[in-house]
Design brief:
- The protein is mostly beta strands and 180 residues long.
- 7% of the residues lie in helices and 39% in strands.
- A 5-stranded antiparallel beta sheet has the order 8-7-6-1-12, covered by helices on one side. Strands 5-4-3-2-9 form a 5-stranded antiparallel beta sheet. It has a two-stranded antiparallel sheet with strand order 10-11.
- The N and C termini lie close together (7 Å).
- The C terminus is likely disordered.
Length: 180
């Protein structure tokens, strides 16, 4: 799937997670070029990997080759509850938008150099859920549960991202786009 994902320039990632511990940084979703070197601190932006990380300080980080967003409280991600994340990327308007639990947390608009999702990582060949694969090792292993991971070429609207990620959401989601 990494080859198909490397061509995604616009789209959305939806996933749910429940974290059990903040002893170490835990990667929820990792993408990378395996010929590159992972930074010793996986919350550091670099050109060969991108991650969604729960840090050992109970923060959610989106680490991207061009930027990094860190979300501090009032959220706790080590509360034994399920959290829903929607990350969307678009060539226009909000180039990158992060919505968690019904709230838009972070967005960057009208910056064409940030447009694109996975196609910004040259040579993307590895996609992992629950850690980064580095040779035969797993780096930043996530201590919790991850479910309902959806990657689509459809850019989910602001309103839908808020509704889908809100606690207690029970509606159906039409997902016409697929990664083949």
């Amino acid at each position: 799937y990494a080859n198909a994902m490397s061509e995604v320039s616009e789209g959305s990632i939806i996933m749910r997670f429940k974290n059990n511990s903040i002893a170490n940084h835990g990667v929820i979703l990792g993408t990378r070029n395996s010929s590159g070197t992972l930074p010793s601190d996986i919350t550091t932006k670099n050109a060969t990997s991108a991650s969604m990380v729960i840090t050992n300080k109970d923060q959610f980080y989106l680490v991207y080759s061009y930027d990094r967003a860190g979300i501090n409280g009032p959220y706790s991600f080590v509360d034994g509850e399920w959290h829903t994340v929607v990350l969307s990327g678009s060539a226009t308007g909000k180039n990158i938008r992060l919505t968690i639990d019904g709230k838009e947390i972070w967005a960057i608009s009208n910056r064409s150099e940030l447009a694109g999702m996975f196609n910004k990582l040259s040579g993307l060949d590895t996609v992992t859920i629950g850690g980064h694969k580095d040779g035969s090792n797993v780096v930043g292993g996530f201590n919790g549960s991850i479910s309902n991971v959806i990657v689509t070429k459809e850019t989910i609207s602001d309103e839908d991202a808020i509704a889908i990620s809100a606690a207690g959401y029970t509606g159906g989601t039409q997902m016409g786009a697929q990664i083949a």
